[in-house]
Write a structure and sequence with these properties.
17% strand; six-stranded antiparallel sheet; 2 domains; globular
């Protein structure tokens, strides 16, 4: 006898073994969630939950860029592999300027995510109203560039792929249509805990993006400015991609 029990999690019937139930209780204590949410997390087969490696990081497959729509987006070299709630992608389409994009889960039902410094930063700076983009090339979308290209492809393509569970189950919040550099995504896969995620273009070669408050906030969490020197000398940031301490700062 395996000691299995059946139960409903988000409308799905799942078989919870004694081991699953023990793991669910441990997950519940660690993340401050209900037992139902915890059970979904530890029994997720084709889903995702806090602590599980996102689909994109496992698959390493190109996918449709949320901005230009081409199957040219890949995991970025700057992605921090230990951070399971945030991933970074890069679009290889030469006509697309979405060079670095962070996708961060801001709501998965856990206190762990709610306490993250970067999630709080995105809630503090909810986005910006940018000038309406101009349609180019007779409405044919060949790429994306802030303020000059069409709206992000994800706003007009129906459900898009969730980079955490890998399913084509993400709705895009239409409320942010005026901000073409940021998307709010809601994954509808009942086995995926990435209920709300934010995708934010962090680099496209323009000051408009580089100086955004939300982009600046994330950048300074990852790479905080050094403290002022005693003799008043200019503060100089370290050069290069550094990962030491980043995960701790992101998680607050």
């Amino acid at each position: 006898m395996c000691g299995c029990r059946y139960g409903k999690v988000n409308g799905l019937t799942v078989m919870a073994s004694t081991n699953h139930r023990k793991r669910a209780r441990s997950y519940q204590r660690a993340h401050g969630v209900s037992y139902t949410v915890a059970l979904r997390a530890v029994t997720a087969g084709d889903g995702w939950s806090n602590g599980i490696t996102p689909w994109l990081r496992q698959s390493q497959k190109p996918f449709n860029c949320y901005w230009c729509g081409s199957v040219e987006a890949i995991l970025s070299w700057g992605d921090i592999g230990e951070d399971t709630e945030r991933i970074e992608f890069y679009c290889q389409n030469p006509d697309c300027n979405a060079r670095e994009v962070d996708v961060l889960v801001v709501d998965d039902g856990t206190d762990t995510t709610r306490r993250r410094a970067d999630a709080k930063a995105l809630q503090r700076f909810p986005g910006e109203v940018l000038a309406d983009p101009v349609l180019i090339n007779d409405d044919e979308q060949l790429g994306w560039m802030v303020r000059t290209s069409p709206l992000p492809s994800a706003r007009t393509s129906g459900q898009v792929q969730c980079l955490f569970c890998g399913k084509q189950t993400c709705d895009v919040d239409p409320a942010g249509d005026s901000d073409i550099g940021r998307l709010t995504l809601y994954c509808r896969n009942p086995r995926c805990a990435a209920d709300t995620a934010i995708a934010l273009v962090g680099r496209d070669g323009t000051p408009a993006t580089q100086n955004r408050e939300d982009v600046t906030a994330l950048r300074e969490i990852d790479n905080p400015p050094p403290p002022p020197s005693a003799d008043g000398a200019p503060r100089i940031r370290p050069v290069g991609h550094r990962t030491d301490g980043v995960l701790d700062r992101r998680r607050g």
